[in-house]
UniProtKB/TrEMBL annotation:
It comes from Herbaspirillum frisingense. Coiled coil: none annotated. One of its GO terms (molecular function) is transferase activity. Pathway: Cell wall biogenesis; peptidoglycan biosynthesis. This is L,D-TPase catalytic domain-containing protein. The lineage of its organism: Bacteria, Pseudomonadati, Pseudomonadota, Betaproteobacteria, Burkholderiales.
Amino acid sequence: MPDGPQDKLKELSDEAMVRIRSLQEKPDPRLIPKAVLQVGDDQKNILVVDTSRSRMYVYENQGGELKYQTDYYISQGRYGANKAKEGDQRTPIGVYYVNNRIPGPKLPDFYGTGALPLSYPNEWDKRNGRSGYGIWLHGTPSDNFSRPPLSSDGCVVLANPDLQSLYSTAEVGKTVVVISQHVQFVDKGEWNKQREAASAMLEQWQQSLENADGDKTLAYYSPEFRSAQGENLSTWYGRQQKSMNGARFTSVKLRDVSLFRYPGGPEDMIVSTFTQESAVGKSKNAIRKRQYWVKEGSQWKIIYEGNA
């Protein structure tokens, strides 16, 4: 908390510098965030936060292509990014989903006109022992238009008008928030190339399931695989096979597929989320899944798979 006029002056100066820098470094709206490889048909918007710029970029899904809409000034954790444990007052780095909508009247004035809680800690956070909870996108108290760049307990804070704009379109379980320390942008040609490669990776896995080729399917999984329950690959895969009771898929289709290059993880890691529609004879089943893929040598391997 500021101790006096000098502290307040420094906070205003820090915010002004960040806002000026964001104007000077404003990305070309024709470029696309490198982390966003593919958005699902059911996803209207993608929110991309750059903690180094204290900025959020908003993109709209227009027929599978990202279109820049606007960007907002944001405040982050008092000690910056890379949250590791509860109470460290840092903002997490990763790919998160909006998992609730809380209107302003149900909140103390501190949170402004509303809040959008995020899915921190996600599967990758838990695997890496990151702790904490209550990471939200939220507004500011009624007597503040904005807050200094480094001032929250880990939440991403926006001015109330900006928060309200996000709140009006955010969808629980669908709106993705990618938080990165430094967002990289690529042109459409490079984006298409990377998207097609990631999509092909997932399609090959899906085809191995549909073809009931157990050895080929198993080859897509990393020796370092761990399930949500902490099972190793042998235990987890054996359980999957046992649940099939000797039956084989006659059809496997994937829909509403999203693919994101994961910020802050291994250099080459992709998180995929999709609905898997499977048929075994006349019996059909649909399940929402999430996978984390890592590149081991020249091969992409699944290091985590579970329900989303």
